[in-house]
Amino acid sequence: MTATITRFEAAIAPCGRATDGTRTTTEDHLGLLTEEVSYECGCRTSREEFHDGSVHRTVVNHHGRVLVDEELRGE
Ligand SMILES: [Zn+2]
């Protein structure tokens, strides 16, 4: 499993604030690709991309409220 952590500045968080944060992408040996973004205000988004092309996406704001929890089917 390889993980890549990238810092970013002044991105728009799910709550609408411009804030710094980090993006972590990991890929396991089965081809599952995960991207997690955490903003300094506490908002978080994650995206899991499976080897069959389907995607699971969640967005949680800094109050811990789930704004988006969806699965998109691959072709
Ligand atoms: Zn926020």
Question: How would you describe what is shown here?
Answer:
It is a single chain. 0% of the residues lie in helices and 63% in strands. The chain has strands at 2-12, 18-27, 33-39, 44-49, 55-60, 66-72. It starts with a strand and ends with a strand. The mean pLDDT is 94.
Number of helices, where a helix is a run of at least 4 consecutive DSSP H or I residues: 0
H-E string: EEEEEE
Average pLDDT for all residues = 94
The fraction of residues assigned to DSSP E strands is: over 45%
Q: What is the 3D form?
A: flat
Q: Give me the secondary-structure category.
A: mainly beta
In total, how many beta strands?
Answer: 6
| Cα separation of the termini | 26 Å
Stretches where pLDDT is under 50 for at least 5 consecutive residues are none
Task: Estimate the helix proportion, in percent.
Answer: under 10%
Question: How big is the Rg?
Answer: 13 Å
**How many strands, what sense, and barrel or not for the largest sheet?**
6 strands, antiparallel
Number of domains: 1
What binds here, in terms of ligands, is: zinc ion
Strands across the major sheet, in which order?
Answer: 1-2-3-4-5-6
